[in-house]
Here is the input.
Amino acid sequence: MSQQIVKRRSRGFICVNAHPEGCRCNVERQIAVARQALAASPRQRAPRNALIIGASTGYGLASRIAAAWGYGARTLGVFFERPPDGDKTATAGYYNTAALAQRAAGDGLFAAHLNGDAFSDDCKRRAMEVIRRHLAPIDLILYSLASPKRTHPRTGVAHNSVLKPIGRDFSSRTVELDSEKVVDVTLTPAAENEIADTVAVMGGEDWRMWIEALAAENLLAPGARTLAYSYIGPELTWPIYRDGTIGRAKQDLEHTARALNQMLAKLGGSAQISVNKAVVTQASAAIPVVPLYLSLLSKVLRAKSLEEHPIEQMCRLFSDFLAADRPHPADDAGRIRLDDREMLPEVQSEVMTLFPRVTTENLRQLTDFAGFQREFRNLFGFEVTGVDYDQAFETAVPLPDSAG
Ligand code: NAD
Here is the structure.
């Protein structure tokens, strides 16, 4: 037992600890949103047994909550999180999952958890074992990993992803998150090996390995579907996103989707990319230019009552596409588009008008940087409404590992 008062500790912008009660409240809020939003959603095509890879934060966590509390799906969540260690708190994703596990048990929902390196053969083997025992056949696999590195399971090579433009320098303005200064930055282009490394980490190879492993073990249901998440965004971010190293990895993910789609079609199933909107997560805050863009975007979307967080996006993914009797159409490239509101011309033109006018002095007037900062701290369980941060909470929260 380790009851303690947990105050936010940061290294630069990043929080290096997490608050268990704040994380629990975040999960509870998402469950409440999913239950309400999906209560009347059609259920014929709803998932029964879902595997979520990258299930502890961001889009993966929201997907898992939507599947479980929206449709009663049995879920296995795979993630890589640090457990508590003495007085040291766990990571937010660990606390999120502990809260989810506790709530699922209370609600009679089957939820299994695997804390390990999803890129490794060992983690896949352990996942297959859990699935064989408790979740076979799997009818939905959601791939929502965001990682800075991957050790390749065959070669043992450690690949590190980079966020860089390709071919030429990219100059733009960005907000330095520590100093809150709006500055012009120039990012130099990636070397060929950096592009290849980023594709190795964030491209489609590992997704394919998961689906092939499930198929080889005969654990896929007829009609099994799989999705991986991507982002396109506005032209402003293309040099660093769509046309940069991460964009190259996402292209690879799209090639993989086409190959997996052919493979799963034989089972009456499918593989698809879902293009989601930009949201504040640990992964997106690390991309240059994106925090400033997000601070403007959320202000514009909120003014138009169009703002969505990951849970609202994932509820729409299920209600309009995955579980719908008549799913909304995919785009010309066969992708699900949940970024439709972000990409509305009237939203983008407002963001683009404001973007060049932002300075250090007017940052907090012109943009919702305060909201961005709060949402970022919320990810770690801090500044969450309703939590008494002067109270001591148990930080050594248990999380059953469902391996084997
Ligand atoms: P996130 O950082 O919130 O979540 C990443 C998840 O991956 C966590 O559950 C983490 O534990 C898990 N993970 C990381 N490395 C792992 C490993 N080695 N083994 C097992 N689990 C591991 O990220 P996110 O922003 O929700 O991104 C998820 C996906 O959504 C990514 O493909 C991202 O490109 C995409 N996406 C994000 C945004 C955005 O704005 N955040 C927009 C569109 C698409």
In short: The first strand starts at residue 3 and ends at 4. The CA atoms of residues 169 and 225 lie 39 Å apart. The first helix runs from residue 20 to 38. Residues 3-162+192-289+307-340+385-394 form a domain with the Rossmann fold fold (CATH 3.40.50.720).
